[in-house]
Design brief:
The structure is a homopentamer. With about 350 residues, chain A is of the alpha+beta class. Chain A is about 55% helix and about 15% strand. In chain A, strands 2-1-3-7-6-5-4 form a seven-stranded mixed sheet, with helices on both faces. In chain A, about 45% of the residues are buried. Chains in contact: A-B, A-E, B-C, C-D, D-E.
Chain lengths: ~350, ~350, ~350, ~350, ~350
C-alpha cells in the first residue's frame, strides 16, 4: 500500500527551521535528469542537461520554456534551481518533500501547484503515487517529478509536431496540458479500481472466504489513498479556473473548467465506488450468516431425525430381564416401521419449513 | 448494470490534445439521422436530412429552428455541425463523449446543457442511460442523442398542432420543453425502482435467500447510478432558473422553476428509497439471524431431550455381570417412567422459555 | 403506507404540455364543496356554494374573504377558480397534483403555499397525508384540500366569535392561522410516532420476534414519509418570516417566527426519533445474537456432559468376550461413580465459566 | 427518561389561538414564589413577594432589578407579569410551555432567552431537564424557572457581597452570570455521562449481558436529550456574543464569548461521548459473537472427539452372531488403544488450530 | 486514556465568578520555572528567574522578549504575570485551566492562543496531551506550559546560533516557530497511531481474539481525543493566516499558511485512520463470523457422518429375539460395507459443497 505511513519521514524535521530542504522519499542513487524544452510558434529546441549548473547558465528566450526535473532526491540541485528563479524556501521545501497534500500557492511572481500522479503498473497490477510539482513563472514552467517514467512524453511529442495547437499558446496552456495529463491518468486508476470491484463481486458470489475479505479491506484502504490524493484537486483547479491569476489567460480558463469537470467526475465515481465496496462488505457478512444458517439446517435435520431413532434402538438394546417387546415375534419389524414413520413425519415437517428442497 | 465502468473508454484519450473528438460509446453501423423542425407561430416545416452537408447549406429562418441529431458516433458529422455554429471544440468533445456528467456551460453566444435520459424498457424490465446534449444558440436549438428512439416525439406532435402554446414561444421555451420531457422520464425510473423495492420487500418477508440479497445489492448499485445521473441537474436547472442568461426570457423562468421543483422531488424520493433499501438490508441480516436462532432452538430441544435419554438406555445396555436393576421385574417399566418424567420436565422447561409454541 | 408510490401517477403526464391539469389522487364521486367565509372586524357572513359558478359571480367585499375548496378531483372547478383569480396555469397544475412537495411560490400578485396535513385516525391507529394548497391574493385566501374533514373548523369558530383577535387582523394573519393549525397537527403525528416507539421498545424487551422487526421497519418507513412532508417547511416558513413579501405585515411575522420555532422543534424530534429507531434495530440484532448464545450454551452444556457419558456406557455395552471389567463385582457401581465424578467436574467447569447460574 | 414524550401536551393546543397561555408541565399545588433582588454598586435590597400584585405595585429603581419567579404553573401570575412589562403574548405562551426548544428572541424593547437547565440528582443518580426563561428589559431581568431549587443561589450570594464585581456591572452582566451558571451545570451532566460510560465499559469487559445492552441504549437516548437541550445554545450565545443587541455592552461580550467557548467544549465532548457509546455497542455485538464462537468450539471439540468413539463402541455392541473381533482375546484392548490413538490425533488437530489452549 | 474525563475538574467552578483562577490539573509540588530569552539581530541574553517578582522588575528591551513559564499550578504566579501585562482575567483563567479547547482570542493589545501539545513517550508507548498557551503582546511572547519537558529546546538553540534566520525576525515569527514546533509533534503522534494500526492489522489477520477488540476500541477512543485536540487548530491557524491581525507581518503569513497546510494534512490523515480503524472493526466481526462458520462445518461434517452410522450400529445392538440379520453369516461385513458406502457418499456430498478441502 503506497504512502500509508508516509508521514513517518516528516518526523526527522521536528524542530528544524522552516525552509530546511530534506528529501523524504527513498534515496535513490540515480542522477537527477534535467530536460529543457523551449518552443515558440515556429520553432522548438530540446536539451538534456547533464547537471544543474548548465541549466543555471542557460537562459532560454523562447516563448515557452519548460524545464523538467526527474528526481527530487538531490537537495543541492533543487536548491540551486529554486535560488535561480527566486522561489520561496518553503516552496522548495515542499518540492522535495514527497508527502505533500495536493495544493496551490499563488504569489505575485509565480504559481506553485503540487499534484499526485497515479501510476498504474500492469505487470504487478497495482498503483503507485508520485508527487509532481509545477511552478509557473513568467515564460517558464518548471516541473518536478519523483521518478523518471516518461509521464509527459505525449505532451513533448505534441509540442514537437509542427501543427499542434499547443505551440501557438503560452505557458498557461502548457500548465493546463500537464494537469490534464495527470487527471487523465486518474481514469486509469478508476478503471483499475473498477475492475478490482468487478472481480471481487464475482468472487463474493462464488465463494466468500477470508481472502475476499482481506481484498475488500485492502481495496477500501487503497481507495482511501486515491481519494486523499484526488480530493484536494477539486478546490485547486476551481481556484485556477475562477481566473484570479493574471498568469492564466481567459482562453485557457475554458480548458481548466474542462479539467475541473473531469475531476468532479472522478471524485463522483470514487464516492460511488466507496458505496459499492461498503455494500460488498455487507454482502460478505450476510452471505456468511446465510451459509451458517444452511450449515445449521443440515446439522439440525440430521440430528433431529437420527437422535430420536438412536434413542429407540438404544432402548431395545437394554439388557433388562423382563422386556416383553423383545420377546414378540414382530417386535423388530414393528420398531423398524415405527422409526420409518417418525422419520417420514420429520422429513415432511422440514419440507413444510422449506428446509429441505432449497438447500 | 449500465454505465458502471464507463470511464474505461476515457483511457484512450490519455495524453491526447484537448478538443480531440473521440466517440466513447459503442460504435454503431447505423447512419446518423438528422431532422430539422422549423416553426413560427403560424407555420412549421419538418425535414429529414440524408446527410450533414444538406444541413450546412440549409439556412432555416423560422422563429425557432430545432435540429435534432440521433447518433453521435460519426465524429465527422458532429465536427461539421460544431464548426458551422462556431461551437468550442471542447463542447464538441463533450457531445461525442457519452460518459459526461450532467453539466451546464454558458458562453456569450450559446448555452450548452448535458443531461442523462433514463429509458425504461418494459420487455427487459431494466433501465438504461442515454446522454442528451442541448445547444441553445440564437434562434436554434441543436439536440444530440445517442440513439434513435423517439424520445421527443410528443414534443414534435405538440409543435405541429395548430393550437399548441409551444408555437407562440421561443427557443428558450423549447429548451424547457426538452428538459421537462427528460425529467418526466425520471418519474418512470422512480416507478421502476419503487416497484422493485416493493417486490423485494415482499420477497424479504416470505423467504430471504441469497438471491434476494443479490437483488438488493444490484438495486442499490442501480440507485447509485440513477442518483449520479440526476443529482447534478439540481444545480444546473437552478442556475438556469436564476435567470442570469439573456437567452431565457422571464416568462420561461417560471417553467424552469417548475422543473426545478420536480428535480428536487425526484432527488428526495431517491434519497428516501436509498434509506429504504438500506433498511431492507438490515432486515435481511436480522431475519437470517432470527431464523438461525429458531433452527438452533429446534436442535437444542431435540438434543436436550434425547441425549440424556440415550445415555440412560445406554446405561442399561451395559453388559456388567452384576447390575441389580436389570434383574428386577419392574426395572424396564420403571426406567420408561423415569425417562417420561425427565422429558416432561424438559418440555415444560422449554415451554416456560417460550421456545415451544411460538416456533 | 400512505404516499409511498405516489409518483406513479405522474407518469401519465410524461410529455404533456405544462399547465395540463390532471388530478393525480384517487377519483372520488363526491361533489367538490365550496365554502366562503367573509369577515371584517365587526361582521361576518358564511356561504356554502352549490357550484363553482356561484362563486364566480359572487364578489365578496369584506376585509378578508376566505374561500375553502374541499376536493380537488374535478379539474373543471379548479380551472375556473384559477382563471377568475388569474393564477398561473402551473400553480393550478400543482394544486390538483396531490403529490406535490411542500413549497412556496411568490409572484407579484399572490403567494402560493403547498403544505402536507398529517391526519391521525384514532380508530385505525394510522396517519395519512393530505395536500393543502393556500393562495393569498389581495384580500382573498383560497385554500384547497383533498378531502372534506373539517380540519379548519376551529379557525372558523374563532372567526365567528365576536371577540376573537383574528377578526381584527388581515389575510396574512388568517394565512398564518391556517399554517399554524397544520403545524399543530404535526404534534399529533409526533405523539403517534412516540407512542409507537414506546410500545415497540417494550415489545423489544419482552420478546423480540420477527413481527417486532417488521414493525420497526414500517415505523422507519413511516418516519421517512413524515420527514419528507415536514422537512421542506423549514425553508418555506423561514422565507415567509424573513418578511420579503409585502402581503405579510410586520405584525404577523412574529407569529410566523413562532411557527418556525415549532417546525424546528418538530424536525428536531423526528431526527431524534430516527436515531432512537435505529438504536432499536441494533438492540433487536444484538438481543437475537445474545439469545442464540444462551441457546447454544444450553446445548453445549447438555452435549458436553452427556456425550462422554454415553461413550462410557457404550463402551461397556460392547460384546467382547474378554472384558475383565464386566466380570468385576463392583464394576457397575465403579462406572456409575466415575461418571458422577466426570459430570460434577463438568458442572463445576461451566459454573466457573458463568454459564450455569445466570442462564 | 425525562422529556421523552413532552410534545404530548402540545396537542391540547391544536387549533387554539396563538398567545393562549397553557402550562404544559405537571400541575403543582405549590404557590409560585417571586423574589426581587435590586442592587446598585453600593446597595442591595431583596424581597420575597407573597403574590404577584405586590410585584405590580412595586417599582424598583435600582440599577439592576432581578425578578425571579419559581414556578410557571399558575397562568394568571405569568400573564400579569407579562402585561406589566408589555411582553408579547407569544413570549408569555413560550414561558409557560416547558417544552420549548432553547431559543433567543430579540425585539426592540427586550431580549427573551429560553434555556434548559440540567439538574443532576445525586441520590437517584439521574438527570432532569428544567426550562429557564430570561427576559432582559431595560434595567430589569426577569427569570422564570419551573421549580424552586436554588439554582442561582450562588449568584445571589455574589451580589450580596460588598466586593463582588457583579455589583459594578449592569443587567447584561447579570444575564451573562445566569447563562454561565446554567452552562456550568452542563459540566456536571457531562461528568455524570462520563462516569456512566466508564462504568458501562467496565461491565462490558467483564460480562456483557442484556442488561448492559439496555443500559447502553438508555444512555444513548439520554445523550440524545442532552444534546437536543444544549445544541441550539451554540447559535444563541453566538448571536448574543456578536453584539448586535444594544442591551449588551462591549465589555460583557468578552464574557459571552467565554461562555460560547464552554458550550463548544460541551458539545464537542457530547459528540465524542456519542462516538464512544456507538463503539461500545459494536463491542457488545462482537463480544457476543466471539463468545458464541468459543461456545461452539467447545461443543465441536467434545462432539468431534466422542461421536466417532461412540460409533466404535456401538459397533462392537452389535449382536451379530459372526463378529470375529469379539472373539479375539486382545480385541478389547486393541479397540481401546485404537480409540486412544484417534482421540490423541483429534486433540493434536485442535491444538494446531489453536482451539485448545486459548479457550 | 489521557484527558478522558477532564471536565470533572470544571465542576469545582460551578457558580464561581468569572475570572476566578483555579488550576484544574494535578497539583504538583515543583516550583514554577520561568526563563526569559531576549534577542535582537545581533545579540541575545537568557535568564532563569528564580521567582516571579524578578520577572516583574525586569524589563527586557530587546527586539524580541520570550518569557517561558513551565508550570501553571501556582495561581499566584500566573496572576502576577497577567496583571503586569494587563491581560484580561478570563484569559488568565483559561491559562491555568488545562482543559481548554484550542482557541484563538484577539484583542487590540494582544493575541492569545491555546494549543494542545501531544507528547509521545517511547518507554511507555503512549501519548499524552499538554496545554500550551501563547500570548503575543507588543515585543513580548509569553508561553505557558504545564510541565517542564524541553519542548522548545530546539527553538532556543536556533535563536542562540548567530546565523539563524529567526534572529532577524520579530515576535510574530517566534510565535510561528512555536506553533510549527507543536504541529511537528503531531506527526509523531500520527506515526504512533499508524504503527498501532499496522500492528493491529497484523494481529487481526493472525488471531482475532477479544484483546484485539479491546485494542481497536482503545485506539479508536485515543483517536477521538487526538482529533478533538487538533481539529480546532484548522480554524485558528486559518484565522491567523488570513492576516487580520496587525501583530503578524505579511512575511510571516506565508509561514503560517505552511503550518495550515500541515494541519490539514494531519487532519486528513487522522480522518483516514478513523476510516481504517472502522474497517478493522468490520473485519474483526466478519472474521469471527467466518470462523464460526468453519467451526460449525466441522461439527456438521462429523455429526452428519457419524450420527446415522451410530444409529445403524445401535440398531443391531437391539436385543430382539427375532432379528434375522443378526443370524446371517455375512451380516456383519454387509453392515460394515453399507456404512462405508454411506460415509463415502456423505464425504462426496461435502466435497461438492466445498466444505472439505478448503477447511
Amino acid at each position: 500500500m503506497p504512502g500509508q505511513y508516509k508521514h513517518k519521514h516528516n518526523i526527522q524535521k521536528v524542530g528544524m527551521p522552516p525552509g530546511t530542504l530534506l528529501h523524504t522519499g527513498s534515496m535513490r542513487n540515480e542522477k537527477i535528469k534535467i530536460s529543457m524544452l523551449c518552443y515558440s510558434k515556429d520553432d522548438w529546441t530540446e536539451q538534456q542537461l547533464s547537471n544543474v549548473d548548465e541549466l543555471l547558465q542557460n537562459d532560454c528566450i523562447a516563448d515557452v520554456n519548460w524545464i523538467h526535473i526527474s528526481g527530487i532526491h538531490i537537495i543541492d540541485v533543487i536548491e540551486k534551481i529554486g535560488n535561480k528563479f527566486k522561489v520561496h524556501p518553503l516552496v522548495m521545501e515542499d518540492i522535495v518533500n514527497n508527502e505533500q497534500r495536493p495544493k496551490l500557492e499563488e504569489s505575485k511572481e509565480y504559481i506553485y501547484i503540487v499534484l499526485k500522479m497515479i501510476n498504474y503498473y500492469e505487470q504487478t497490477v497495482n498503483i503507485e503515487f508520485e508527487q509532481i510539482s509545477i511552478i509557473i513563472i513568467r515564460n517558464y514552467i518548471i516541473s518536478f517529478q519523483e521518478n523518471d517514467n516518461h509521464t509527459f512524453q505525449q505532451i513533448r511529442d505534441r509540442i514537437k509536431k509542427t501543427n499542434g495547437t499547443i505551440r501557438t499558446k503560452g505557458v498557461d496552456y502548457l500548465a493546463y496540458a500537464l494537469i490534464d495529463c495527470i487527471v487523465d491518468h486518474y481514469y486509469i486508476a478508476l478503471e483499475y479500481l473498477g475492475e478490482k470491484i468487478e472481480s471481487l463481486e464475482d468472487k463474493l458470489m462464488l465463494d466468500p472466504g477470508p481472502n475476499v475479505l482481506k481484498e475488500i479491506h485492502s481495496l477500501k484502504t487503497e481507495m482511501l489513498f486515491v481519494r486523499k490524493a484526488i480530493w484536494p484537486l477539486r478546490e485547486i483547479i476551481n481556484a485556477l479556473a475562477r481566473g484570479d491569476s493574471v498568469l492564466f489567460s481567459q482562453d485557457t480558463l475554458i480548458y481548466l473548467r474542462d479539467v475541473y469537470d473531469h475531476i468532479i467526475q472522478v471524485i463522483d465515481t470514487i464516492e460511488m465506488y466507496r458505496d459499492m465496496v461498503t455494500g460488498m462488505f455487507d454482502i460478505y457478512i450476510s452471505s456468511v450468516s446465510y451459509k451458517l444458517n444452511e450449515v445449521m439446517k443440515i446439522l439440525t435435520i440430521i440430528a433431529t431425525i437420527f437422535i430420536p431413532l438412536t434413542f429407540i434402538v438404544g432402548l431395545y438394546g437394554m439388557n433388562f430381564k423382563y422386556m416383553p417387546e423383545l420377546e414378540w415375534e414382530w417386535g423388530y419389524p414393528a420398531v423398524l416401521i415405527f422409526m420409518g414413520v417418525i422419520s417420514t413425519f420429520m422429513i415432511i415437517y422440514f419440507k413444510r419449513k422449506n428446509w429441505i428442497g432449497n438447500t
